[in-house]
Amino acid sequence: MSRKIKLIWDFRGQDAARIAEHHEIHLKEYIAIEKLPINITGFEIINEMYAIAFMVVTDENMIQVRDALKPHRGELYV
Question: What is d(CA 8, CA 14) in angstroms, rounded to the nearest whole number?
Fold first, then answer.
């Protein structure tokens, strides 16, 4: 079974939540365009000045997505 990796984009500032929510739309569009077998995306509001958008990928898709979308960081997803 492949590892799952959560790729994360960080957004800071007064508009962080709105930007993270909008960024998730673009992540879903990328998945559809590339026909990737990925179905976990989302955004989380950490506090009023910090939010993240994320996409969970497998080892097989990680390099392609990382190189194309330039996430700020990643972590193992359990």
Answer: 19
Counting runs of H as helices and runs of E as strands, what totals does the chain give? Answer: 2, 4
Contact 45, 37 (CB under 8 A): no
pLDDT at 9 over 90: yes
Please write the tens of the pLDDT for every residue from 34-62.
999 989 999 999 999 999 999 999 999 99
Cβ(54)–Cβ(42) below 8 Å: yes
Question: What are the structure tokens assigned to 27, written together?
Answer: 């992540």
Taking CA atoms, 76 is separated from 8, 29, 33, 35, 54, in Å, by: 11, 23, 25, 23, 12
Q: Which two tokens stand for residue 10?
A: 């960080």
Residue 29 burial (C-beta neighbours within 10 Å; 0-12, 13-18, 19+): exposed
Whole-angstrom Cα Rg for the chain? 12
